[in-house]
Design brief:
six-stranded mixed sheet, Hypothetical Protein Tm841, Chain: A,domain 3, alpha/beta, Rossmann fold, homodimer, globular
């Protein structure tokens, strides 16, 4: 494992320090560096807060700024932020209109965000939107349900824009729940990842293997398959998404996101996008918006995910609304 | 070598097709798909054209759009575009004010862009700006001089903004030459890259080695060194840049760019940025603008480069000017 780092235990803190310094016109550290916040809060706007383990950058800190998140809490690599961090973020960024927490559906994240919300109940108005867009986990014996993966960025963008436009807390939660049902993601990896603390790969693949249905923590997926060409991989990913419950709204306009996991060059993402878009449009779904890039990562994993999100007039308008963050603008 | 692709010989074309499709509101193919152009040309504006081998994305196609490039010509992987492609781009995007070609200083690129310019001499007003920002090649026995690497994006951004503001061809060339002298870059790799056509790595490193002074075509650098921690690597890179002729303008404001080569996660780039910024500021140079991300790549190479560019009032204003491209906005 070769990395640009000093010590594994300090790499998240050192990297965040660089992030804040490089983007100092947009963001700043919150109290005691427990979170990264938008430099200029908007009084009377619902505060949008997210967070999770490090290793998924630019999610979430890269999405702090105008039209998206007010604060992001980062834990250690693949480790949830503590309730203490989340509490500090709520206290500092809630300007009176309440606070919406956007949480990926992983046990640790859900537990810690809920604990923070319970601790502050009565003092702050808080709602939680759980993102669970992973089509791979559907039907699998996973008690906690679908994982939250790359679709999280769509929820953060749309709810961030709605909050910026003055939508209130209860309506934001309803919008988030409605939108969440319209988003499905499926991922594939060409290799596992090496977590700096352990210096061990999370799983190993043979040169002719790929892992289908992976999440974003280096965990194995739902099936190991023979490596195929891009046309076949894209077809398999699109079939999985379109076979998913709720994804049969032919004719509805949609957003197509092809997201790299950190170690896959952008041209390969565009190549998969090219095939996926044609396959999806052949099924009668109109792709009206697209995003291709490295946004929701699993350290330097070689791999990608395809996300399809149906859009209505409201969510399309919010997707198009101005945004000014380090990673999306 | 595991990649998302169908056949090596068609992967550039398939990827470009996806790129144009995903960004169809900004860009379109030029005639016969020989280049990617800005969808809406501005009559009377000098056309800014660049290009080079594939494998460096988002450079150059990702920078086509308002305030940056009018066209980008992409060759096969690590292979210059042909004069024919460049000629077609000039003919289609020169709306009467002439055409500025921004070319990275590699023999093949320079030769083909010059050949295109000579072919059209008399029919189009054409100037060429050669970018040669690589601090590593300086003093080395390289007859053609410094290579053009990540600093190319700064030249494209600043000249693109100037052209958008109505600056004429001769002044653009002068601005480009002045700016070029103010930019220095140095790169380091943790491994070589595998070119899809040959399926062979360009060089191999031991687990405790790094390659210093690499370019962006997988070529070996100027020295192989023992892998060090981020503090030591950043110090070595900054020392090389600041020791370079012309980089001793203490007090002058500057832009600091930390650029990933394709296989290095963004948090590691921010970690290096954090150290580099402090080291450079300790030498009396004020960092007033920053850019950290994966912009000028060498396929999926693990590695990064640090670029320092001094800015005057004019180039700072042009750096800040609006830009709307797939990769920079």
């Amino acid at each position: 494992m070769k990395k640009f780092m000093n010590k594994a235990e300090s790499m998240v803190a050192e990297s965040l320090e660089g992030f804040v310094l490089a983007n100092e016109r947009l963001v700043m550290f919150g109290s005691d560096r427990k979170f990264v916040r938008r430099r200029h809060l908007v009084p009377g706007k619902v505060a949008i807060i997210s967070g999770g383990g490090a290793g998924h950058e630019p999610l979430h800190v890269g999405f702090v700024g105008q039209g998206m998140l007010d604060a992001a809490c980062t834990g250690h690599i693949f480790t949830s932020p503590t309730p203490d961090q989340i509490i500090a973020a709520i206290e500092e960024t809630d300007t009176g209109a309440g606070c919406l927490l956007i949480v990926k559906n992983y046990d640790g994240d859900v537990m810690n965000f809920e604990m923070a919300a319970e601790t502050l109940a009565g003092r702050h108005r808080i709602e939680i939107v759980i993102v669970s867009d992973d089509a791979a986990a559907y039907g699998a014996a996973r008690s906690s349900g679908r994982r939250g993966v790359a679709g999280t960025l769509i929820v953060e963008k749309v709810l961030g824009a709605a909050a910026e436009a003055g939508v209130g807390l209860v309506d934001l939660k309803q919008l988030g729940e409605r939108l969440g049902k319209q988003i499905r993601t499926i991922g594939v990896a060409l290799g596992g990842v090496t977590v700096p603390d352990t210096a061990r790969a999370t799983f190993l693949l043979e040169p002719d293997e790929m892992e289908v249905g992976v999440g974003i923590h280096g965990e194995p997926g739902v099936s190991r398959q023979r490596l195929a060409d891009a046309d076949a991989i894209a077809a398999m990913l699109c079939d999985t998404i379109l076979a998913d419950q709720g994804m049969r709204n032919a004719g509805v306009p949609a957003l197509l996101l092809v997201n790299g996991f950190g170690g896959t060059p952008t041209p390969e993402l565009y190549l998969i996008y090219n095939v996926a878009r044609r396959l999806i449009e052949a099924r009668g779904i109109r792709i009206v918006r697209s995003l291709v890039g490295t946004y929701v990562t699993s350290l330097d994993m070689a791999g990608l995910s395809v996300t399809l999100s149906f859009l209505d007039d409201e969510t399309l308008r919010l997707w198009d609304a101005p945004v000014l963050t380090a990673a999306l603008r």
